[in-house]
Specification:
By secondary structure, this protein is of the alpha/beta class. The protein contains ten helices and 13 strands. About 9% of the residues have low confidence. The chain binds nicotinamide-adenine-dinucleotide. One of its GO terms (cellular component) is Golgi cisterna membrane.
């Protein structure tokens, strides 16, 4: 009897045990699935947080305000390369072509250019910035090339004359090679310096110039002269479409603080109460155009059918001394005017004959000198505010040439 009871109990226990085991198993599975579900929820929430965070991080670029850009149909929209596009003139040209609705690629090695000059376009679907030296070949697909890459102010191009020569010769060959490969039109930013210290006044495009081929400025002057020669060799031999702009002195915002040319020197000196340095008697003449006028001229020339060189400059001629006095009065500065010995190879007179541009492009400068100067003074005073101690004095990088002083450009 006792045995039967024990057997019954143990059977019951076994069943109970099985039942309990089954219940425990069910509870375990249920717990596990709840836990997994909870874990999944947490993962989902983390994912969601990351996505939200990423969107937050990205949102400034999503919401970034670009300057207004026109819509151009596929047919009218061009792929445009600007070499030296992060420099003074190049960045203003970038602005115009972007706002006109084109796709712009800026190529620059940042020797004198700055990312800051084009940063307002970074991230825009029509804009690309490439850090590249034009002395190396470049392979991209483009319809037009504005070839501006070259140091432009004497302290900058005399800093490394061999590099200046390479940029203007090998760099130009590379860009002409690219133009030939992809069938693009190339505009060369040449210079009034191809006229040297001119014996003809004002200088028209027929004048062949008066250049010292071994002087301190030859790396630039002769570099640009041979760059023009290369353009016409590619045009005649390879059928490349070329445009050549002979640019005269230009000024405006985004000029480099170390530019070292007369407008920026005088403005910076006047703003800081330093003497305005005039080399020689100050009777040398110069004519200055505002940068927006130049940019309009470059675009008109590129899209014209004129393949011969065209002067782009302001024919309004002033003596250096007049400039010094005008800038002093616009800045309302107490600076003195200081006369220093005349500089080597300093052209006595420089004034463009722009009849060709007027007649064939319908172009002439429209920004009055004082208006342009006031804008440039505002720009330089803002730049000075950025300087830590507000005591910046323009000190162009020393030229490696032993001879030659700064001159009025
Ligand atoms: N500003 C003027 O008064 C003036 C007058 C005559 C001609 N130009 C010509 O116009 C062009 C632009 O002049 P700017 O005043 O804007 O000068 P800039 O120095 O401000 O611009 C030149 C740009 O070219 C870039 N660059 C130089 N060497 C390069 C290289 N090897 N590879 C790639 N990029 C390079 C520089 O970093 C800079 O961004 C130059 O070709 C200059 O000769 C200017």
């Amino acid at each position: 009897m006792m045995k039967r009871v024990i057997w019954l109990l143990s059977g019951l226990n076994r069943r109970m045990m099985k039942l309990l085991f089954a219940l425990a198993l069910i509870a375990y599975i249920a717990c596990k699935s709840i836990q997994e579900h909870a874990e999944m929820n947490i993962e989902q929430r983390i994912d969601e947080m990351f996505i939200t965070k990423e969107i937050c991080l990205l949102s400034p670029s999503f919401s970034q305000k670009y300057p207004p850009v026109k819509f151009l149909s596929e047919k009218d929209r061009k792929r445009i390369l600007i070499t030296g596009g992060a420099g003074f003139v190049g960045s203003h040209l970038t602005d115009k072509l972007m706002m006109d609705g084109h796709e712009v690629t800026v190529v620059d090695n940042f020797f004198t250019g700055r990312k800051r000059n084009v940063e307002h376009w970074i991230g825009h679907e029509n804009f690309e910035l490439i850090n590249h030296d034009v002395v190396e070949p470049l392979y991209i697909e483009v319809d037009q090339i504005y070839h501006l890459a070259s140091p432009a102010s004497p302290p900058n191009y005399m800093y490394n004359p061999i590099k200046t020569l390479k940029t203007n010769t090998i760099g130009t060959l590379n860009m002409l090679g690219l133009a030939k490969r992809v069938g693009a039109r190339l505009l060369l930013a040449s210079t009034s310096e191809v006229y040297g210290d001119p014996e003809v006044h004002p200088q028209n495009e027929e004048y062949w110039g008066h250049v010292n081929p071994i002087g301190p400025r030859a790396c630039y002057d002769e570099g640009k002269r041979v760059a023009e020669t290369m353009c016409y060799a590619y045009m005649k031999q390879e059928g490349v479409e070329v445009r050549v702009a002979r640019i005269f002195n230009t000024f405006g915002s985004r000029m480099h603080m170390n530019d070292g040319r007369v407008v920026s020197n005088f403005i910076l000196q006047a703003l800081q109460g330093e003497p305005l340095t005039v080399y020689g008697t100050g009777s040398q003449t110069r004519a200055f155009q505002y940068v927006s006028d130049l940019v309009n001229g470059l675009v008109l020339l590129m899209n014209s059918n004129i393949s011969s060189p065209v002067n782009l400059g302001n024919p309004e001629e002033h003596t250096i001394l007049e400039f010094a006095r005008l800038i002093k009065s616009l800045v309302v500065s107490r600076s003195q005017i200081q006369f220093l010995p005349e500089a080597q190879d300093d052209p006595q007179r420089r004034r463009p004959d722009i009849r060709k541009a007027k007649m064939m492009l319908g172009w002439e400068p429209v920004v009055p000198l004082e208006e342009g100067l006031n804008k440039t003074i505002q720009y330089f005073s803002r730049e000075l505010e950025h300087q830590a101690n507000n005591q910046y004095i323009p000190k162009p990088k020393a030229a490696r040439m032993k001879k030659g002083r700064p001159r009025h450009n």
